[in-house]
């Protein structure tokens, strides 16, 4: 059930998006019944141009900055200091991320890798946890920034959890090969669909790209990176048959461990997006 103010907010956002799309690039904001499917790797590339930038130091090297909206302690994984990134390459209709997902150019502040690490370590010390996490948003957008954060944390007495939708990791085995060198890294790949139809319907991206997160899982296994699979397979979102397709794909790539099946939570932003998509 969408309350009137939520509908109003959405109407405003839609009008802003239309105006902006006319002025600038055609950038997908959220899924509607009339949405054209998009290439998520291309959206990642465009998003990176908005949420990442590099600056040259006086020594001639580059520092890679990325936009974040928040740093806080999350209750997941017991307790984890969390860095919340801006921008994603998917437009899931059940997404709970605030408007920073849809309008990355308007939200967030640029932080250097060192800023991010200092904030995470400070939070972790204050709240007595050894778990650090990066989520959002899609943290794999901005590879140089992410690798710089990981470099700064290597050797630190903590576990670093990277939450990802797996699109970019599936598109690049090289990206995953680079992650092997970080011993304190744990990757959480969150599947959004079990087949092409479900992927296109619920993320707005071209259906054939549904295979990328499964490829990420295969590549992570092959590379020996520590990881686990999560999935938005709540029956309210994913039908039983599609869930079986998902399990089949996981078997195909050789994944045998447990799956963290996520529960659908009807946050305000989620409900607005579901309604916009005609659900
Ligand atoms: S649920 Fe995750 S992958 Fe999907 S749009 Fe939101 S942030 Fe991106």
Please characterize this protein's 3D structure.
The longest helix has 20 residues, at 4-23. This protein has helices spanning 4-23, 40-51, 113-126, 143-153, 167-171, 173-179, 196-203, 211-223, 240-252, 268-276, and strands spanning 52-56, 62-74, 80-85, 109-111, 131-135, 159-164, 185-191, 227-231, 259-261. Strand 2 and strand 3 (80-85) form a beta hairpin. Helix 3 (113-126) crosses helix 4 (143-153) and helix 6 runs parallel beside helix 8. The protein has a single domain, classed as TIM Barrel, CATH 3.20.20. The chain contains ten helices and nine strands. Strands 1, 2, 3, 4, 5, 6, 7, 8 and 9 form a nine-stranded mixed beta sheet that branches. With 279 residues, it is an alpha/beta fold. It is globular. Iron/sulfur cluster is lined by residues 88, 90-92, 95, 97, 101, 136-138, 165, 192. Residues 88, 90-92, 95, 97, 101, 136-138, 165, 192 line the site of iron/sulfur cluster (SF4).
């Amino acid at each position: 059930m969408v309350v009137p103010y939520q509908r109003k907010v959405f109407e405003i956002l839609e009008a802003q998006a239309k105006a902006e799309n006319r002025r600038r690039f055609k950038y997908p904001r959220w899924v509607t019944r009339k949405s054209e499917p998009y290439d998520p790797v291309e959206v990642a590339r465009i998003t990176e141009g908005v949420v990442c930038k590099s600056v040259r130091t006086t020594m001639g090297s580059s520092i890679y900055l990325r936009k974040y909206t928040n740093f806080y302690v999350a209750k997941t994984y017991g307790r984890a200091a969390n860095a919340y990134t801006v921008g994603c390459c998917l437009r899931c209709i059940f997404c709970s991320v605030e408007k920073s997902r849809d309008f990355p150019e308007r939200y967030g502040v640029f932080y250097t890798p060192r800023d991010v690490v200092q904030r995470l370590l400070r939070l972790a010390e204050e709240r007595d946890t050894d778990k650090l996490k990066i989520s959002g948003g899609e943290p794999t957008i901005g590879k140089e920034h992410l690798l710089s954060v990981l470099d700064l944390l290597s050797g630190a007495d903590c576990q670093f959890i990277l939450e990802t939708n797996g699109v970019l990791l599936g598109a690049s085995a090289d990206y995953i090969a680079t992650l092997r060198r970080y011993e304190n890294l744990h990757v959480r790949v969150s599947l959004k669909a079990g087949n092409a139809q479900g992927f296109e319907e619920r993320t707005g991206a071209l259906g054939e790209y549904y295979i990328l997160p499964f490829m990420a899982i295969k590549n992570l296994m092959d590379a020996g990176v520590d990881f686990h699979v999560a999935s938005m397979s709540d029956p309210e979102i994913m039908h039983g048959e599609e869930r079986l397709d998902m399990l089949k794909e996981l078997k195909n790539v050789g994944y045998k461990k447990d799956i963290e099946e996520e529960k659908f939570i009807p946050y305000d932003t989620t409900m607005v997006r579901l309604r916009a998509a005609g659900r």
